Amino acid sequence: MSLTPFLRLPLTDLTGCLINHQTYDKCGKFEMKMMECFEAYGLERGKRECADLISDFQECVGMQKQLMRFHAMRNERYKQWLKGERKGSEFFAEPPRVDAY
Protein backbone atom coordinates (compact mmCIF):
# COMPACT_ATOMS: atom_id res chain seq x y z
CA MET A 1 0.00 0.00 0.00
CA SER A 2 1.59 3.23 -1.12
CA LEU A 3 0.61 6.49 0.48
CA THR A 4 2.96 8.74 -1.46
CA PRO A 5 2.57 9.74 -5.11
CA PHE A 6 4.91 8.28 -7.71
CA LEU A 7 6.00 11.72 -8.90
CA ARG A 8 5.96 14.43 -6.26
CA LEU A 9 5.27 17.91 -7.60
CA PRO A 10 3.64 21.04 -6.16
CA LEU A 11 0.49 20.06 -8.04
CA THR A 12 0.34 16.71 -6.23
CA ASP A 13 0.76 18.53 -2.92
CA LEU A 14 -2.21 20.76 -3.74
CA THR A 15 -4.53 18.03 -5.01
CA GLY A 16 -3.48 15.17 -2.72
CA CYS A 17 -5.95 16.12 -0.03
CA LEU A 18 -8.92 15.99 -2.40
CA ILE A 19 -9.11 12.19 -2.46
CA ASN A 20 -9.92 10.82 0.98
CA HIS A 21 -12.77 9.20 2.87
CA GLN A 22 -13.41 12.02 5.34
CA THR A 23 -16.56 13.13 3.52
CA TYR A 24 -18.15 9.69 3.89
CA ASP A 25 -19.69 8.81 7.24
CA LYS A 26 -18.87 5.14 6.93
CA CYS A 27 -15.05 5.02 6.65
CA GLY A 28 -13.93 8.49 7.70
CA LYS A 29 -13.20 7.57 11.31
CA PHE A 30 -11.22 4.49 10.29
CA GLU A 31 -9.12 6.56 7.91
CA MET A 32 -8.49 9.22 10.53
CA LYS A 33 -7.33 6.68 13.13
CA MET A 34 -5.06 5.04 10.55
CA MET A 35 -3.52 8.34 9.47
CA GLU A 36 -2.99 9.44 13.10
CA CYS A 37 -1.18 6.16 13.74
CA PHE A 38 0.99 6.75 10.66
CA GLU A 39 1.73 10.25 11.90
CA ALA A 40 2.80 8.90 15.27
CA TYR A 41 5.01 6.05 14.02
CA GLY A 42 6.05 7.13 10.52
CA LEU A 43 5.32 5.27 7.30
CA GLU A 44 7.69 2.30 7.55
CA ARG A 45 7.21 1.50 11.24
CA GLY A 46 3.53 2.43 10.98
CA LYS A 47 2.94 -0.39 8.52
CA ARG A 48 3.84 -2.83 11.31
CA GLU A 49 2.42 -1.00 14.31
CA CYS A 50 -0.83 0.06 12.64
CA ALA A 51 -1.56 -3.18 10.76
CA ASP A 52 -4.88 -3.71 12.55
CA LEU A 53 -6.06 -0.17 11.75
CA ILE A 54 -4.98 -0.57 8.13
CA SER A 55 -6.90 -3.83 7.78
CA ASP A 56 -10.00 -2.28 9.40
CA PHE A 57 -9.88 0.63 6.97
CA GLN A 58 -9.36 -1.64 3.97
CA GLU A 59 -12.29 -3.81 5.06
CA CYS A 60 -14.48 -0.74 5.43
CA VAL A 61 -13.60 0.49 1.95
CA GLY A 62 -13.54 -2.85 0.13
CA MET A 63 -16.21 -4.79 2.08
CA GLN A 64 -14.56 -8.15 1.29
CA LYS A 65 -15.98 -9.96 4.33
CA GLN A 66 -19.48 -8.61 3.70
CA LEU A 67 -19.36 -9.73 0.07
CA MET A 68 -18.05 -13.18 1.00
CA ARG A 69 -20.90 -13.53 3.52
CA PHE A 70 -23.44 -12.43 0.90
CA HIS A 71 -22.12 -14.91 -1.66
CA ALA A 72 -22.10 -17.75 0.90
CA MET A 73 -25.73 -17.08 1.84
CA ARG A 74 -26.78 -16.82 -1.81
CA ASN A 75 -24.98 -20.07 -2.68
CA GLU A 76 -26.63 -21.84 0.25
CA ARG A 77 -30.10 -20.68 -0.84
CA TYR A 78 -29.33 -21.86 -4.37
CA LYS A 79 -28.22 -25.30 -3.12
CA GLN A 80 -31.41 -25.59 -1.07
CA TRP A 81 -33.44 -24.66 -4.13
CA LEU A 82 -31.67 -27.30 -6.25
CA LYS A 83 -32.33 -29.99 -3.61
CA GLY A 84 -36.01 -28.99 -3.46
CA GLU A 85 -35.87 -27.73 0.12
CA ARG A 86 -36.90 -24.24 -1.03
CA LYS A 87 -39.52 -23.25 -3.54
CA GLY A 88 -38.95 -20.58 -6.14
CA SER A 89 -41.19 -18.16 -4.28
CA GLU A 90 -39.16 -18.74 -1.09
CA PHE A 91 -35.80 -18.26 -2.76
CA PHE A 92 -35.40 -14.83 -1.18
CA ALA A 93 -36.82 -13.48 2.05
CA GLU A 94 -39.73 -11.11 1.95
CA PRO A 95 -38.64 -7.48 1.65
CA PRO A 96 -39.41 -5.13 4.53
CA ARG A 97 -42.34 -2.77 4.35
CA VAL A 98 -41.77 0.52 2.57
CA ASP A 99 -42.18 2.56 5.75
CA ALA A 100 -40.08 0.19 7.90
CA TYR A 101 -37.01 2.40 7.79
Number of strands: 0
Q: How far do the termini sit from each other?
A: 38 Å
Helical run tally: 5
Query: Largest sheet, described in full?
Result: none
Helical content class? 55-70%
Tally of individual domains: 2
Average pLDDT value? Answer: 85
**What would the principal axes of the Cα set say about the shape?**
elongated
Q: What is the CA-based Rg, rounded?
A: 21 Å
Enumerate the spans where pLDDT stays under 50 for 5 or more consecutive residues: none
> How much beta, percentage-wise?
under 5%
Write the H/E string, N to C. HHHHH
The quaternary organization reads as single chain
Helical/strand content category: mainly alpha
Account of the protein in words:
By secondary structure, the chain is an all-alpha fold. It has two domains: 62 residues, no CATH class; 31 residues, no CATH class. It has five helices and no strands. Helix 2 packs across helix 3 and helix 2 packs antiparallel against helix 4. The chain is elongated, with a radius of gyration of 21 Å.
List keywords for this structure.
single chain, elongated, 101 residues, electron transport
Write the layout of secondary structure elements.
Blueprint: H1 10-15, H2 28-41, H3 43-49, H4 51-62, H5 64-83
Helix pairs in contact: 2-3, 2-4
Membrane topology: Peripheral membrane protein
Main location: mitochondrion
Protein name: NADH dehydrogenase [ubiquinone] iron-sulfur protein 5
